[in-house]
Design brief:
mainly alpha
């Protein structure tokens, strides 16, 4: 099987850490093997932006076109979004 799949989601769903999960797989074994390190590095690069409540709120205002909805809060949801290693079953992504 060759090709790509793209699924679109309303952006506000991604602002709720427990509402959406994204699982990826690449047919290229080299890319697939290195993807966890790539994601870790990307998160590190984005930390100055994602790690600040005021900047997260500014981003939310842009996404929502004004004030965020009442349910939205600016705190870091990384821990809430993290999946325990046991949820990865046989995947090597738990490393």
């Amino acid at each position: 099987i060759k090709g790509q799949v793209r699924i679109t989601l309303n952006p506000d769903v991604f602002l709720r850490a427990t509402y959406a999960r994204m699982f990826t797989y690449s047919a290229d074994p080299t890319y697939h093997e290195k993807r966890p390190a790539f994601i870790k590095q990307l998160v590190g690069l984005l930390e100055p932006i994602l790690g600040d409540d005021a900047v997260r709120e500014k981003a939310a205002r842009g996404i929502f076109g004004g004030s965020p909805p009442d349910w939205w809060t600016p705190e870091d949801q990384s821990e809430m979004a993290a999946m325990p290693a046991a949820r990865y079953a046989t995947s090597d992504m738990a490393e």
